[in-house]
Amino acid sequence: MASVVVATTTLASAISLAGCGPRVIPETAKNEFEAERIELACDKVEPEAHYALRATNVLLKERKRKNIGIGAFGLSLSFPVSHRPNARLGIYQSNKQQLTSMRSWDETRGGFTDEFVLATSDDPLADPAVRVDVRDRHGTIGYARVHVCELLADKYVSLAQGEGEVAFEVTKLPRGERSVDVHIDGRASPPSDDQMCAGPHGAGVMLLPGQRATIESVRGGVSFGSFDHHRYGPAGVAGKWRSYRYDGLSWVNHGALAFKAFGQVSVAKSGTTIDATEAGCLAFFVNDTDPDNNHGDFVASIKIAEL
Question: Could you tell me which residue, 43 or 13, shows the higher pLDDT?
Fold first, then answer.
């Protein structure tokens, strides 16, 4: 699988352009035209906002064929490297520190999608430039450096020296008080780490720094196993299938609705609150280590408010 890694770079120095007074412009602007284009792009970007970015298409120039000599006669074999690899997107504040990355289960695709959250400052024009780096297992295929406003406004990056191009889906994440219903499939598994919105068949909701999620209610029913067709509520079933409960949730009924958020794992019940100190996910799953033969679903009603 190829990967798209986006890393911030050192920003901007003050320069004078012909006919203009001194101003700070991004390093990525090679001339006045590019500087003005970035300024116009920043007019479309909201200050102090959070955006989710997802790579939707990666088109790459085919790599040079490699010849392999075999025997005294130098028989040559050649093969192309795929020019349309699957892509993963990363956003970094520096070459080593990633801002926020999320993976979520896409039921229609039967696999995971990668999403990254980028925060703008009160002056997006002064925000760091971004390096787009497309890699596969052989190393870097192509790269580009763009201003963050160009990335968010254009949703497109042309890689240097014509190596290819990357298209993005960009979504401004909502703030303010709102209520959402999260539907959790009875087969939902927990995410493997804190940078995932959901495990297989799971569901989650994104929280931004300074937000509080309150679980107002949980409902629904799920049957467990091939022979017990009774549907149990979000509290699960006591006294059965103890060996099929997750570590850390052995005290919780089998099949109970649980959640994972910011390092906390617990049963999901009405009145529970989760505070976000950084962008991250409130992910839901079912306390069943063998969920593939489960049927039904749960619903968690969530109220999200600003602290």
Answer: 43
